[in-house]
Amino acid sequence: MAEHAVAAVLQRAGATVIQEVASLGQVPAKVEALKSELKRMQCFLRDADARMERGENEMLSQLVSEVRDVAYSVEIIIDTANILARETSRPPSLLGAISKGACYPVHCKRLYSIGKRIDQVTARVGAIFREFAKYSISSSTGLNETRHSMDENESMRARRLTLPDFGDDVDVIGFDSEINQVKDELLDSENKDLTVISLVGPGGAGKSTIARKVYNLVAKKHFNSCAWICISQQFTVYGALKDIVKGAMGSQDFEELGTMSEMEIIKKIHSFLKDKRYLVVLDDVWRIEDWDMVQAAFPDVKNGSRIALTTRNSAVSNHPNARKIIQEVKLLNNDESIELFNRKAFPSYVLHGRDDLDSFRELGKALALKGNGLPLAIVVMGGFLSKNLRITEWRRMVASINWDAMKNEGDIRAILDLSYYDLSSNLKVCFLYITSFPEDYAVPVGLLTKLWISEGFIPNVRGRSLEETALGYVEELAQRCLILIEKKSSRCIRTVKVHDVLRDWGIGRARREGFLKDCSSRDEVETSYSNEMRAYRVVLYDSVCVKVGVAMPNLHTLLIFNAARLERNVFSFRGLNYLRILYFDGMRGRWQLPAEIGQMVHLRYLGLKGGTYVLPASVSNLTNLHTFDARDAVVEALPIDLLSISTLKHVHIYKVESWSVWKTTIQSNLKSLFIFLAANTPKQWEGAIDRMEENPSWCFGKHYRSVKQLEIVGACEDEFGVPNDLHLPDLHLLPHNLRRLKISCPNLLNDEDPMPLLGSWLTFLNVLEIGVKSYTGATMTCPSGGFPDLHNLVLHDLDIEEWILEDGAMPRLRILTLCKCTKLKTLPQGLQHLKELKKLKVIAMPELDQVLCYLLHKAGREVVLRSSEEDFEHVQIPERTEI
């Protein structure tokens, strides 16, 4: 983890920094030398992290902490040099003077300061590694930590290698449905193909338990040859093949395997199994490659043979080139959780002679639910508490669960560690970052990926944008069952959550490694804990109203949740000058940010959620700002120079109440600009955006006359047609009293049908146009009672295939226009029941069934059919005319 701190600095520094500071005397050469030193430090930390992951060493931890401190110091130096370069490069005459060495005095002083700080950091690096050599940390720690790691892994592997006992009835609760489904698939007499049945779920979800139960029920009774093989992270081809021979073939010819090649063993297994109806269980498969290396041993002779595998990675379950059946293991519900907990916490020997069991059972319900349906967590907790029948201990556990105290019952931390160790360095930090969000928090993927990128977690990958790589990380974490998909569209994942047990585990690791410090009180902010490294990221929950920058200087990231309870008059920005990430979540009411925020010149990401904010003019001094994200907030006054910051890439604002828009200029580096509710945006802006080289995604919501009329226009796709994450955060944010609404912004509504919510929320709406693929779904439904006052509806250039108009919807509709909705083949029958419908216009829809058009014409309605889109007229949103 410490290795990634250096990697992130190198990622953010990049070659462009040195190019920009080429006019700064000897500073560029010194910075380059410092970057080279960072790369050597990165190699050291990669090795140190690998040895520390499973075993702790206090001296090594201290050394790693110091190296990481140096890395962050280097980042501050590089940022400072970068800022100075941009400042001095603006006036050409000053640039010429600097290049000749005739420096302006203040500039000289700042240059000297940067050079001196680089020399100090370089000297510090040398001192650290001299101490490293002095104490011989490498030789004294490596063997013990490696041995500890091996012992732990071998112990866990041994537990997995315990084969099912055919006389033993595996104790299961809550898995009856999964067991019956898997059993039915194994015994399906009509399916003769070799079939791979996968059980997928997070660590501790009960995948192996289900497999063992089914294996015990059907293996010997219905198959000629059976084998249970533990794959695990220590997979080797020879080891797996040897286990298959031992399990499926018995002891025959087992000794001669030592003289055979892997391919010879595969042929031997294949030859043996081709005459058998066999069942092979591959337990705990981690990687696609593991399957690829053994699949040739399994013949498909169309006799109903089966392979069952358990995995935490859904990519593995989708990979086999054979008939596949995938069973996702669900978590236990509340009743099942309580039943499992009671069975483990109250064995028969504790039930006799106690008169306080009712109190324990009441506490047990709360404890069982803390496992959040994860069977392993519930079993471990119940087993531990069955030996600790003290009411005070149970109450303490209700308040705060200590998983480390329960290691003898089954080390849940070690189980979850395996999933963590299998991640790349980048994925590790991305996962730990998600655990900083509050419990049960639905994390928007757009927000998450912007934070990851701002932190420097996302590497540059040839042919992919940073955003695309970040979305790939989200998908991989979901595939590995480390995060839960909360909301998903047809194109991408929208929001995610972390299982509470995984979050608790992740927060604990993040604290120990100094990745972040989470605080719910003033004391936690001001206290240093002996078992935790110094953290440069702080997460504040609830009403923490301290001078956090003073208590924890040189902070890199500050995330504040439940900001509505923040005592804004007490909270201080003092000491936060080196902050890179600042995020306020859950604010309510109005807050004027202090002018001191302009001193945070290293800030890359500023996020505001909820409430109304007044930004001081000094925010224009944030010359490193990449992202300003207020998509769920109101900005009362937007400084006119904010959008001219040269580093700014993304601006997302829900609503701007006051804005001298005519005086504002947009710099050309923007990649996305989303201002949902704003004063009338000049038409010249749209032309200026179209001429930008980067072709940014953009969206403006223009409101008129107290927001009774709203036009949302934009182009929310990149140059390759990939949708940006710009989207309407919540349709309830639309003003309830809207009379006219026009939405012409691709992907803005995604594939979630907007009509049910729009119809019930915008009850005063008279005119509605939805077009230009703003909605990407296939079905559109207008429920009964929706749009009670709608007069004019326009649907233009949508991919809807079915339109359902329920009886009682749009009772006052008079004019309906359909244009270029080419996938819509038939009109809804409900149109015949609209008594006030006067006119139907159908344009550029040659394949539409016109039977209903004919019937409407016969009923006295005006029906206009046109073949060319040129005949289409958009809804006009007048600037001064009241509806």
Automatic annotation (TrEMBL):
Pfam families: NB-ARC, Rx_N, WHD_DRP. Keywords: Leucine-rich repeat, Nucleotide-binding, Plant defense, Repeat. Residues 437-504 form the Disease resistance protein winged helix domain. SUPFAM superfamilies: P-loop containing nucleoside triphosphate hydrolases, RNI-like. Residues 5-89 form the Disease resistance N-terminal domain. GO terms for biological process: defense response to bacterium; innate immune response-activating signaling pathway; plant-type hypersensitive response. Gene3D superfamilies: 1.20.5.4130, Helical domain of apoptotic protease-activating factors, P-loop containing nucleotide triphosphate hydrolases, Ribonuclease Inhibitor, Winged helix-like DNA-binding domain superfamily/Winged helix DNA-binding domain. InterPro entries: Apaf_helical (IPR042197), Disease_R_plants (IPR044974), LRR_dom_sf (IPR032675), NB-ARC (IPR002182), P-loop_NTPase (IPR027417), RX-like_CC (IPR038005), Rx_N (IPR041118), WH-like_DNA-bd_sf (IPR036388). One of its GO terms (molecular function) is ADP binding. Residues 177-347 form the NB-ARC domain. Belongs to the disease resistance NB-LRR family. This is AAA+ ATPase domain-containing protein. It comes from Aegilops tauschii subsp. strangulata.
